[in-house]
Amino acid sequence: NAGVMQNPRHLVRRRGQEARLRCSPMKGHSHVYWYRQLPEEGLKFMVYLQKENIIDESGMPKERFSAEFPKEGPSILRIQQVVRGDSAAYFCASSPTGGRNEKLFFGSGTQLSVL
Amino acid sequence: AQSVSQHNHHVILSEAASLELGCNYSYGGTVNLFWYVQYPGQHLQLLLKYFSGDPLVKGIKGFEAEFIKSKFSFNLRKPSVQWSDTAEYFCAVNADTGRRALTFGSGTRLQVQP
């Protein structure tokens, strides 16, 4: 049973380009969470999605960032017109039912570097 | 809003030393508490969690944590660390109301010297 798969592992973009980060949850999981990790700052919640629905996007910047989790295919975190401050590790996690005491399964992350 | 504080950013211990990592949260209601670990080059994985019952919870690899409601704390402990415990440790909280996603602390980097 494959774990949470994120790709690419490393992504380099120049300022102004778009970044697309993909996350395939564990089989049978319909709840996906995106977190961003900056050095010395831990993991910051960005967005929580269920299949075809955004449940909570309160941690995601209003501009340039968007997320989706279509009926078929992986969840996508999209960053338009990237800036140097977007450089970070982006982690995706999934869970079966979204319960509050449920364990999250994490992917290995995507390291985004903006030149 | 819920928040989590981890006061120790970087801890260095020798093998066989005892470990205690602090975690405090701010939320007055019912909470679910977690410790996750990230070994070098690996993804985060769950060490242990508390959501009800015995406030002393035992996790994998000899770790345990104690929930003290009056102190809003959930400190992680291990009596005798090993070199292989070198990792980053994250405390996280999920309250019974409000945001459903976990809120993480800033993490503690543990370095165990052989």
Brief overview:
The complex is a heterodimer of chains A (115) and B (114). Chain A is built from no helices and 11 strands. By secondary structure, chain A is mostly beta strands.
Describe this structure as you would to a colleague.
The complex is a heterodimer of chains A (115) and B (114). Chain A is mostly beta strands and 115 residues long. Helices cover 0% and strands 50% of the residues of chain A. Chain A has strands at residues 5-7, 10-13, 19-24, 31-38, 42-50, 53-56, 65-68, 75-79, 88-95, 105-106, 110-114. In chain A, a hairpin with a 6-residue loop joins strand 7 (65-68) and strand 8 (75-79). Chain B starts with a strand and ends with a strand. Chain B contains no helices and 12 strands. At the A-B interface, strand 5 of A face strand 5, strand 6, strand 10 and strand 11 of B.
What is the fold's blueprint, element by element?
The complex is a heterodimer of chains A (115) and B (114).
Chain A: E1 5-7, E2 10-13, E3 19-24, E4 31-38, E5 42-50, E6 53-56, E7 65-68, E8 75-79, E9 88-95, E10 105-106, E11 110-114
Parallel strand pairs in A: 2-11
Antiparallel strand pairs in A: 1-3, 3-8, 4-5, 4-9, 5-6, 7-8, 9-10, 9-11
Chain B: E1 3-5, E2 10-14, E3 19-21, E4 24-26, E5 31-38, E6 45-50, E7 56-58, E8 64-68, E9 73-78, E10 87-95, E11 103-104, E12 108-113
Parallel strand pairs in B: 2-12
Antiparallel strand pairs in B: 1-4, 3-9, 5-6, 5-10, 7-8, 8-9, 10-11, 10-12
